[in-house]
Amino acid sequence: MRYIIGLLSAIFIAIAPAHAQQKPVKSGIRADRPTVDFGIIAEENGPVSATFDFTNGGNEAYVIDQVTTTCGCTVPSFSKTPVGQGERGSISVTFDPTGRPGEFEKQIYVSANNRKYLDTLTIKGAVTPRPRTVEELFPVELTDGLRANSMTVLFGMISRNQYCYGTIGLANTSDRPVNVAVKFLNDAPHKDVHASPTLLLPGGEGEIVVEYDFSGTDIWGIASDPFEITINGRKWRTPFSANATVIEDFSALTAKQMENAPAARLSSSYYHFGNVRPGSVLTRSFELANTGGSDLIIRHIQPTSNAIRYTVSKTTLKKGEKARITATLSTGSDTGHITDSLMLILNCPSTPVLEFKLAATVQE
Predict the structure, then answer these.
(1) Could you give the CA distance from residue 281 to residue 341 in angstroms, rounded to a whole number?
(2) CA-closest candidate to residue 234, choices 196, 180, 187
């Protein structure tokens, strides 16, 4: 008897999950319009709503379990009252365009009859952005009515032979002219910064222009260059900055050279030492392998802070060779979670930058 009960239980357990995981199907409801196109809507006018009216053309009552959307900007409203065969029902949806300029298309998923059915509705349209205030466009408040749209120029990755420039927008919100001057804290031939124009009239706009040309330099990896801004003859208290990651220039490689290029692979990209004490010196090794067709060269290895040191067994790897890199992380006296990295700059077109991270939780 116990055997029979156990066998029936096993059969029930085996069958139950298969039934619970049955894929839902479309129901027999017929929406008057399964897609609502709002057309062009103005962001400043606020939320817009639509109602999806439908007829239950199925052979059983239709009971909505839940309605979900692909975005928090879209909020549904519905009733769980059963909709009988041939009867009418509706689902309302409200879309909030705030902060969502441009075209949009959102799906609404209707689950019904204990998840037996899943139907999809759609709303779409295009949002014209509301006019932004000068405070929104230039959120950094400086002095004498001068505002900026940022304090940093982020270039991303720049190849060695690539000239590039970036800007920071300025706006004079005062009723008087404002003189602007900028200069790098450490000047060098490969970089330039200037204000254009140097005199901003009341209500006028201008920009700070940062220019980089790393050709002929020995700079690899992260280049972070602070610069100061002087407003009406007075230096602003906080420096601005320009940041770039300098990599190899691969633009002149032929298709054959690209096919035969080196390829880099790390044995690991992250290691956590766990809980450690302040003042610990932690060591971890990893391998860099060349899986490509020509020599892999480590152009530069750059720690993200003074807390991490490294040694490397070789910087040129022939096809199939590996290099061992040993990283040492010093935790210092502070407690808490720390993460530092080694950034590898390589002559590898597919992955010119690789990063190995070390982390630890420092506790007393």
Answers:
(1) 15
(2) 180
pLDDT in tens, 182-236: 999 999 999 999 999 999 999 999 999 999 999 989 999 999 999 999 999 999 9
In this prediction, residue 70 carries a pLDDT of 86
- Distance CA(259)–CA(322), nearest Å, equals 20
Q: Are 298 and 351 in contact (CB under 8 A)?
A: no
Name residues of the chain where pLDDT drops below 50: 1-21
Cα separation, 194 vs 182, whole angstroms: 6
Helix (H) or strand (E) holding 259: helix 255-259
Residue 226 CB neighbour total at 10 angstroms: 14
Name the token pair of 116: 């037996």
Which H or E element spans position 11?
helix 2-20
Give the DSSP per-residue string, 119-153.
EEEEEEEEEEPPPPPHHHHS-EE-STTEEES-SEE
Cβ-proximal residues to 231 (8 Å cutoff; 6+ apart), any chain = 142, 143, 144, 146, 178, 179, 180
In the β-sheet with 102-112, what is the strand arrangement from edge to edge? 35-42, 117-128, 102-112, 64-69
- pLDDT tens-digit map of 41-59: 999 999 999 999 999 999 9
Q: Which amino acid is at 113?
A: N
Tokens 């003859």 label which residue?
233
Report residue 244 as tokens. Answer: 């770039």
DSSP annotation of 96: -
Q: How far is CA 219 from the centre of its chain?
A: 27
* Alpha-carbon distance values, 47 to 28, 72, 285 (Å): 31, 13, 55
CA distance 49 to 243: 44
Q: How many residues does the chain have?
A: 364
Instruction: Note the pTM of the prediction, 2 decimals.
Output: 0.71
